[in-house]
Amino acid sequence: MKDEPKRASLSVYDYSDKSIQHAWIAVLAYLGLRLFGTVMGVLQQPAATVPFVVDALINSVILGLLAFGIYRKSRVAIALAIIWIVGAQFYTWIAARSFSGTIVTVIVTGFLLRGAKRIFEHHRELQDSPADAATPS
């Protein structure tokens, strides 16, 4: 077999960018840390098990759905994930007067912002593509 030259991609976008994948993985990692915190809270305060478990269930459902939405490249999901995670940190700062979780929140928010930028670029590329390119000749 002859060495065939490598064909250049016709796409403007470099598909090696993993920003969206990193964003939904960051949400799942954040959820894992929240669940770990729930287990630690239950072990330290067994009398408050019910509120801890209810909070963990609510966060699991919401963050799980948001991670799936980010995986599916939803602009709404990534915006809501940023609001949910940053809002939870603001609540921790104001209500608990604690800076715990700040570093994790900053890291996760960084991944979400990169993912949001890529998701919005992806949707812009879909809108900019000519309609006649999708129909077969």
Alpha-carbon Rg, integer: 20 Å
Poorly predicted residue ranges: none
Average pLDDT level: 88
Helix content percent band: over 70%
The proportion of strand residues reads under 5%
What is the count of β-strands?
0
Tally of helical runs: 4
Large-scale geometry? elongated
Series of H and E elements = HHHH
Instruction: Give the N-to-C terminal Cα separation.
Output: 33 Å
Task: Give the count of structural domains.
Answer: 1
What summary fits the major beta sheet? none
Helix/sheet category: mainly alpha
Describe the structure.
With 137 residues, the chain is mainly α. It has one domain. It is 71% helix and 0% strand. The protein is built from 4 helices and no strands. Helix 1 packs antiparallel against helix 4, helix 2 runs antiparallel to helix 3 and helix 3 runs antiparallel to helix 4. The longest helix has 27 residues. The radius of gyration is 20 Å and the shape is elongated. 18% of the residues are buried.
